[in-house]
Amino acid sequence: MHIWVDADACPVAIKEILFRASQRTQVPLTLVANHAMRIPNQPLVRFIQVTSGFDVADNYIVQQLTPGDLVITADIPLAAEVIEKKGVAINPRGTLYTESNIRQRLAMRNFMEEMRSIGQVSGGPPPLNQTDRQAFANSLDRLLAKHLG
Fold it and tell me: For residue 92, what are the CA distances in angstroms to 39, 41, 115, 139?
């Protein structure tokens, strides 16, 4: 298993949870983004900076992904591609994307995007809170325990 992070929009608190989990479980972690970021000096943590552009980081992750890898992303189309390649995807709030829920999530995302484009809806999800961070940590621990067990 390898953990991949769609790091451009991943909250700092989630990255910190991932750094600790990687060190604790010895599972490699790679953050992919189109802007520079600091990572801890840990042997299993890597950062890949890709060029700017639409879905460049997402495409890199999909190309590198192997079945069973874990991807952290709030990007629903990326999560759909991960599932298609037999990977596992969770969002920074700890929600597991599955074959049974990804189509509904894609449809809702597309609907909300359309509503935003015509001015019917504005804004995005609320800021990450402590409950969200805990839900993410719990989800991550379950997935890592399943992999390592």
Answer: 18, 23, 24, 10
pLDDT, one tens digit per residue, over 59-93 is 999 999 999 999 999 998 999 999 999 999 999 99
Q: Say if residues 26 and 45 touch (Cβ distance below 8 Å).
A: no
Q: Taking the mean position of all CA atoms in its chain, how far away is CA 140?
A: 11
Task: Identify whether the C-beta of residue 71 lies closer than 8 Å to the C-beta of residue 88.
Answer: yes
pLDDT of residue 124: 66
DSSP 20-74: HHHHHHT--EEEEESS-------TTEEEEEPPSSTTHHHHHHHHH--TT-EEE-S
126: which DSSP letter? P
pLDDT value of position 147: 86
Asked if residue 78 lies in contact with residue 56, where contact means CB atoms within 8 angstroms, the answer is no
67 is written with which tokens?
């079945």
